Every structure is written in C-alpha cells, then in structure tokens.
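Reminder to self: tokens first, then the designed residues, so the page reads top to bottom the way the pipeline ran.
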C-alpha cells in the first residue's frame, strides 16, 4: 500500500508543513429579518411548536462577552402554544443561533 492509499498519511499531509491555513470561520452577519426567519424555522421543527413564530430580536448596544450583538430575549407569537411546550425549543434555538449569527 502506497502513501497515497493510506488515509492516515493523507490526513497528516493535509495538516503538515506547507499546507495552507484555513481561515477562521466566525458567526455569519445577517439582517434582523433573516435572523427572525431562521429562528422561526428552528422553533417550528420542534414537536408541538409548528405554530410558534419569532416576531423580533433585540440588538445589543455592544457585543456581549460571547461576541454576540443580539439578546437572548425574543418577542414570540406562540399562537396558543403553551410556554411549557416551547421552552426547550427557545433555549436550543437561541443558543444555536447566537453561535452562528451576528446582526449586520
């Protein structure tokens, strides 16, 4: 088996000397409307949360200690869905989005 057939060698070669450095990838810059749409779509993937919509996010004056420039506080229209049903969707969706997006 030659070195090109050995996956371990191939991986080492990708990270070895002379390999180009990958750019750091950070949160993607999005507008408020796009963030609201994304959050709404995330909520609606959760059981019993198909009717929940995100209506507004809140921009922070300066990025917080995590580098995010929008708040965990959202304005929702739950369309009659009980908070006990959407609370987990809220927590998971907001944390995922705060790592993925900053407002333009």
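Designed residues (104 positions):
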């Amino acid at each position: 088996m030659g070195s090109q057939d050995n996956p371990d060698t191939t991986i080492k070669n990708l990270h070895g000397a002379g390999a180009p450095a990958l750019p750091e990838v950070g949160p993607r810059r999005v507008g408020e409307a796009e963030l609201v749409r994304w959050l709404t779509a995330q909520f609606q993937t959760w059981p019993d949360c198909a009717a929940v919509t995100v209506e507004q996010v809140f921009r922070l004056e300066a990025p917080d200690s995590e580098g995010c420039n929008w708040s965990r506080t959202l304005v929702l229209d739950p369309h009659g869905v009980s908070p006990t049903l959407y609370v987990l969707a809220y927590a998971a969706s907001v944390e995922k989005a705060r790592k993925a997006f900053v407002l333009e």
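The helical segments are 7-14, 32-43, 83-100.
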